[in-house]
């Protein structure tokens, strides 16, 4: 098992927490023009993990949700598809059966999402079942309570086993930054998740009051950069939860651009998990292309 001291020793948080917000403000203040850039907005659209994670989701509603993604490609041939659909694990067979757009990935939350408060063997089984039913991306939450108690080896070992359970599927590890709060701890959680095998690190479940924040995004991108410098591995970043407006998505795009650069700005390394963003972004893209366009509600 990895020693947490050894694990974190090689990584120093190279910024002061009190400078964090002003740095984020500087970045977001200088990116507002990107909201008018159709190509940037289309890139962001292609990075959306189009999410439905409602208690009321059903076979019928998820089938209809997936069908919209299929229809979108026909109805808007000049638009990219979203990056992925993201659903509860019980609907893995539905997206596997009905999703017909090859470039759209099949993401499933698992591992006792959203609380992560269950037995590790149950988490592993849930991940394996989701993958066996066709999911090729798995989103899991760290054991936040154990992390906050300093049980870093426990958190590392869980992620390591869940990554193993994924096989060829990509693993996105949700830190639940709104529950962690402190920038240094978000940095620590980022490093542990990446070293244990995360392909992406993700801010939030969208199921607690504080979801994605720009400050957390900045810290996580800095951690991804440090991890890349040390290991050569490119880990993806996924802000998620509460991101609904185009300008909010643009702000996250700008932080990734500033910290990690253009090479991170495609859906292989950047996703935005969102249930409400796609229609707003689509409407804004269409109205930039044709100012007479009304707001659309496709999804
Ligand atoms: O992982 C994605 C989030 O659950 C989506 O949250 P949202 O419904 O606030 O966009």
Give a brief description.
The chain is built from 13 helices and eight strands.
Description:
- It is built from 13 helices and 8 strands.
- It has one domain: Aldolase class I (TIM Barrel, Alpha-Beta Barrel), CATH 3.20.20.
- By secondary structure, it is of the alpha/beta class.
- β3 (105-109), α6 and β4 (137-141) form a beta-alpha-beta unit.
- The longest helix is centred in the C-terminal third of the chain and has 18 residues, at 214-231.
- It has an 8-stranded parallel sheet with strand order 7-6-5-4-3-2-1-8.
- The site of glyceraldehyde-3-phosphate (G3H) has 14 residues, from β8.
Which SSEs are present, and which pair or pack?
Blueprint (H helix, E strand, L loop, with lengths): L3 H6 L7 H13 L8 H9 L1 E4 L7 H17 L8 E4 L4 H7 L6 E5 L10 H13 L4 E5 L2 H5 L3 H15 L3 E5 L2 H4 L2 H14 L3 E3 L11 H18 L4 E3 L7 H14 L12 E3 L2 H13 L10
Parallel strand pairs: 1-2, 1-8, 2-3, 3-4, 4-5, 5-6, 6-7
The structure holds glyceraldehyde-3-phosphate (G3H).
The site of glyceraldehyde-3-phosphate has 14 residues, from strand 8.
List keywords for this structure.
299 residues; alpha/beta; TIM Barrel; eight-stranded parallel beta sheet; 13 helices; binds glyceraldehyde-3-phosphate
The global form is: globular
Q: What portion of the residues fall into strands of 2 or more residues?
A: 5-15%
Number of strands: 8
H-E order = HHHEHEHEHEHHEHHEHEHEH
Report the span from N to C terminus: 45 Å
The largest sheet has its strands arranged as 7-6-5-4-3-2-1-8
Instruction: Supply the number of helical segments.
Output: 13
> Helical amount among residues, as a percent range?
40-55%
Bound molecules: glyceraldehyde-3-phosphate
- CATH fold description: TIM Barrel
Q: What is the highest CATH level, the class? A: Alpha Beta
- Biggest beta sheet attributes: 8 strands, parallel
